[in-house]
Amino acid sequence: MIRRTVLKTTAGMMLAGVMALPAAAADLTMNVGFGAPEESIYGRFGKIFEEKAEEYTNGSIDVKLRCCNQISSEDEAFKAMQLGTVDGFFITANNVSPHWPLMDVTVLPYIFQNKEHLAKVLDGEVGQMMKDKLQADTSVHMLAFGPALYRDFYNSVRPVNTMADMDGLKIRVPKNEVMIATFEAFGANPVPLAWSETPTALQTGTVDGGDNGTSFIRDMKFYEFEPHLVILEHFVSFSPLFASDNFMKKLSDEQREQIMRAAIDAGAEFAQQVAAETEEVRNWLATEGGMARTDPDKTDFVEAAKGVQAQFAEQRGAEFVDLVKMIQAAAE
Fold this sequence. Notes:
Blueprint: H1 2-20, E1 28-33, H2 41-56, E2 61-66, H3 74-83, E3 88-90, H4 115-122, H5 125-138, E4 141-144, E5 149-155, E6 170-173, H6 177-185, E7 189-192, H7 198-204, E8 209-213, H8 214-219, E9 228-230, E10 236-237, E11 241-243, H9 245-248, H10 253-286, E12 292-294, H11 299-316, H12 318-329
Helix pairs in contact: 2-10, 6-11, 11-12
């Protein structure tokens, strides 16, 4: 009787122990870094990717987001992924260019003529070709382009309904050759200024206007002295999600497909959020902010930008020219 009781007790303890065991741990951890705070564009994109990656892989991959340059700075992250010391990172497209110059194609004005053209390029053959070539050239994987962020134009002189309305406007631009050439092509007078000088120059009328990300116009309260908001969408920027080849080789074929699908789906979901928020801020600027909004016909602007595209493409060589032509052809 005593022996049976002991056996029952032991079996019960073993069963309880089994039931108390935690769920199986993830097979692999993916540390994904970014330079900005957790609530930034990078952090929000990363959170969606984290949720989808863990869902799609049934928890076999545990994504850990590392903000604020915890594992690398943005400038150094691409090289670190090439060396295999960083699993993944969000990097602003222009900071990828020193490592892969073809990324600079996304900086050109109106290289994406509208949202439909943008989607056709990024989600189609050209976007896949860019991902494949970047991997072949650098070994780093671009998992997703991420949402497009546009710069909106504003000025204190007049509404802009056609490109002719840009004539003679003194426009603050960063000290960037592409941006200077773009506003010259639009008929304006670009004035290169450091950012530290810009708010005062706008308030005092040293310059008539400038361009910034939509939310930034509101955050800096430019609406208080720049009454005209113009939706040009002439420049677009991305913050793609990258992964090292070292990390991707640790995955099974199924896991690799799941991670890539998670990145693409996260990018698409977040792009919808960003687009909705951008329009909300524009509406706020045009109502509570008191700005007069115009949405000009972009035809003349796009044609002028093609000259800028050709000018800078020729400086970069045959591969760059070919990629520009492929992107332009996708709009036809």
